[in-house]
Amino acid sequence: MSDTRFVMTLLGKDQPGIVEAVSRVVAEHGGNWEESNMARLSGRFAGFIRIRVASDAAAALEADLLALSRSDLELQLDRIEKDDPQSTTTPARLELVGGDRPGILREITAALAGAGVNVARLETDCRPAPMSGERLFHVDADLLFPAGLAFDELRERLEQIGHDMMVEIDLAETDEA
Fold first, then answer.
1. pLDDT at 175
2. Which CATH number is 89-173 given?
3. 10-residue stretch averages of pLDDT, the chain, 177 residues long
4. Domain locations along the chain
5. Is the pTM of this model over 0.85?
6. I need a surface site. Which of 6, 58, 74, 120 has the fewest CB within 10 A?
7. Do 3-80 and 89-173 agree at the fold level?
8. The CA-based dihedral angle spanning residues 10, 16, 22, 23, taken in that order and rounded to the nearest 10 degrees
9. Beta strand ranges found along the chain (DSSP E)
10. What Cα–Cα distance (Å) separates residue 133 from each residue in 57, 92, 110, 124, 161?
11. How far apart are CA 110 and CA 169, in angstroms?
């Protein structure tokens, strides 16, 4: 018997029980919760979940998951035929720290997009510097570089942008993104 896979997106007001409700429905249909990424931000909840279920249970699972949607919680389910191959990409990690100001992320992501680099994961936040209390902007990102991209040239370009904006940028190839 074949399996059906879904990627589910959740977005809504944060409240206790969201994850339990989804995991209960998945388990009731014999589904497997394969991977997820969830976060709370400013009282809102967002999540992505990859689910696998026997094909003969897929329609019922889909209907029951979508029934969880309500005015304060939006759900979307996308059937995944096969995973996106990443064999022609090189994973890398980008870290950035610098005084907070508008435009930092735009400058960096413009350079990445211009080189054909895919942002696989991105986390940002602002926090006070240990000694001065100045607000520092932090970026932690996993990237996927296309085959044939001159990694060192892009690293130099990003370091130049970092120098111009007075932020520290560290870019390194990794084993996985």
1. 81
2. 3.30.70.260
3. 92 94 96 95 95 96 93 92 69 95 94 94 93 92 90 90 93 80
4. 3-80, 89-173
5. no
6. 74
7. yes
8. 130
9. 3-13, 32-41, 44-54, 73-80, 89-99, 118-128, 135-146, 167-173
10. 54, 30, 29, 18, 24
11. 15
